[in-house]
């Protein structure tokens, strides 16, 4: 079992932060053709430096770049692979009472890792920022291989394109696994020792109504879980022993709204019992997430990070309520293997959730203070 910084702490973050006004303005100018990529990158660099300093000042020992270089938490990574094109379908993703921007990723050739993948340079910059900061770890987050697989099947156009290139699903799963494995190893070579894969597929598949709508009723829960587990574990197998691997699961996070509901019980035997990660970051901020009983499936020694503090709204949770819920979860997983975090990031897309930057940091301080009260660290 990997023992990196995050496994020794009991407070953590999921990773994305609200985009500062200067960064939003620069991205708008870039899209409008008023500035070039180098000018946008300069603003990104400046704002990421400020963010990392804020993270460290808040007491965080695992830091991220806030996903400031991304428009989406997942699509930007997909677009970085060979064999993938950026498309704009008729509809975006359907959330509760809201529809996202319409973007997707479609297969146009065999899928493979490219050394020029944007996540590599993004991590290298972050790593340089913390190189002289003792005790601080740079974390890279990437969307899960299962999320990639799911995107390539989203909508009739994507599915038709996929079948043209990959009539054999086994070959598709192999190529996705290999592309991700190569990406992860390249990140490792760049110094990454803490990698989190973000994965909404498990959070969506537990919602029967969501999948009935997505597939017109034509889906098999067991088959989907088998595929998701296979493609994720293909990417996560045979990796260096000192690379801490974790996964974050939620049910959608866009502009303070959500996409699916349901507890972890239907997927616990696959996700929690069999996925090849060291830690699970799980959404538990409201009743949509279910209870803690499925945590009994987590293998001994693995960590669970409880997402009890919502990133969707500004109101602060009561510390005593959080402490009571942590104690409840400890009936399923030993307290020393639990940690506390927000349930998701603050800006899974560049739009961000409906709270201010000050309120965002209030949430982080609440997580840190509550964890120290519980675990004494």
Automatic annotation (TrEMBL):
One of its GO terms (molecular function) is methyltransferase activity. GO terms for biological process: methylation. The gene is metK_1. Keywords: Methyltransferase, Transferase. PANTHER family: METHIONINE SYNTHASE. The keyword Methyltransferase applies. Pfam families: Meth_synt_2. It comes from the Bacteria. Residues 168-350 form the Cobalamin-independent methionine synthase MetE C-terminal/archaeal domain. This is 5-methyltetrahydropteroyltriglutamate--homocysteine methyltransferase.
């Amino acid at each position: 079992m990997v023992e990196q910084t995050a496994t020794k702490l009991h407070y953590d973050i999921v990773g994305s932060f609200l985009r500062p006004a200067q960064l939003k303005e620069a991205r708008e100018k870039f899209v409008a053709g008023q500035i070039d990529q180098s000018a946008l990158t300069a603003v990104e660099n400046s704002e990421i430096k400020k963010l990392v300093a804020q993270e460290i000042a808040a007491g965080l020992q695992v830091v991220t770049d806030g996903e400031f270089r991304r428009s989406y938490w997942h699509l930007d990574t997909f677009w970085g692979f060979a064999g993938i094109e950026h498309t704009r379908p008729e509809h975006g993703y359907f959330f509760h009472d809201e529809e996202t921007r319409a973007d997707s990723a479609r297969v146009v050739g065999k899928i493979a890792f490219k050394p020029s993948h944007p996540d590599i340079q993004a991590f290298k910059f972050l790593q340089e920022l913390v190189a002289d900061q003792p005790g601080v770890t740079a974390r890279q987050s990437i969307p899960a291989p299962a999320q990639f697989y799911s995107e390539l099947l989203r909508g009739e156009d994507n599915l038709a394109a996929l079948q043209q290139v990959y009539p054999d699903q086994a070959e598709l799963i192999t190529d996705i696994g290999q592309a991700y494995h190569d990406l992860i190893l390249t990140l490792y070579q760049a110094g990454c020792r803490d990698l989190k894969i973000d994965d909404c597929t498990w959070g969506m598949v537990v919602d029967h109504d969501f999948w009935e709508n997505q597939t017109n009723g034509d889906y098999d829960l067991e088959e989907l879980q088998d595929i998701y587990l296979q493609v994720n574990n293909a990417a996560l197998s045979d990796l260096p022993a000192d690379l801490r691997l974790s996964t974050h699961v939620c049910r959608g996070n866009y502009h303070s709204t959500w996409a699916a509901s349901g507890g972890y019980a239907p997927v616990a035997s696959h996700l929690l019992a069999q996925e090849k990660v060291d830690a699970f970051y799980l959404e538990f901020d409201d009743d949509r997430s279910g209870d803690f009983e499925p945590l009994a499936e987590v293998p001994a020694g693995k960590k669970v990070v409880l997402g009890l503090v919502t990133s969707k709204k500004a109101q602060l949770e009561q510390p005593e309520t959080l402490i009571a819920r942590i104690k409840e979860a400890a009936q399923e997983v030993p307290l020393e293997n639990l940690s506390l975090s927000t349930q998701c990031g603050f800006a899974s897309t560049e739009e961000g959730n409906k709270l201010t930057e000050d309120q965002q940091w209030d949430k982080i301080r609440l997580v840190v203070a509550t964890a120290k009260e519980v675990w004494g660290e």
